[in-house]
Amino acid sequence: MKVKNSRLETLKMLISSQELSSQDQLLQALAQEGFEITQATLSRDLKLLKVAKAASSSGKYTYVLPNDALYKRVSNHIPISNMAMGTGFLSINFSGNMVVIRTRPGYASSIAYNIDNSDITQILGTIAGDDTIFLVKKKGITEEEIINALSVVIPELSLHD
User: Fold this and answer.
1) At what angle do helices 23-32 and 39-48 cross, to 10 degrees?
2) Spatial separation of the C-alpha atoms in residues 88 and 132, rounded to whole Å
3) CB neighbours of residue 128 within 10 Å
4) Are the CB atoms for 115 and 123 separated by under 8 Å?
């Protein structure tokens, strides 16, 4: 068990300090640290650690630890102020009671999460992909009401025409 715990700690350290985007890269990095394991073992370790893939500040999908996506250390440092400048929102379009929001790649899920957790009563629900959010508004709600309600979560909407 001591070897497994050591391997898991090493894996966490590698994920939090490098931009690793494939299991092959992870296996090579672990091998350099003295851990020769199979892909199946690595998959089990990643599941145990609840590792996910998320868009890094460079736009590349890399492995991240839970709650680490915003604080991930990367080799090309970007000032926090630049990372927090926007929500990733690109556009919004309406068709009947349906709304489609376009975002930068990797942003849709977090924006939809914020919408769902903002108790916006004019919205029935959201479905998010990588760069698109599908939203259903309640019957009788105007586009302007949706934009006003969403501007709390997406400040760029107040500038949208």
Assistant:
1) 100
2) 11
3) 20
4) yes
| Nearest-10 Cα torsion for 141, 147, 153, 159 | -170
What DSSP element (H or E) covers 119? Answer: none
For residue 131, the tally of other CB atoms under 10 A from its CB is: 17
Q: What is the pLDDT along the chain (161 residues), one digit of tens a residue?
A: 678 888 988 898 888 878 889 999 999 999 999 999 999 999 999 999 888 888 766 678 888 887 644 434 444 444 434 444 566 788 999 999 999 999 887 788 888 888 888 889 999 999 998 889 999 999 999 999 999 999 888 888 866 54
Q: For the beta carbon of residue 103, count every other beta carbon within 10 angstroms.
A: 24
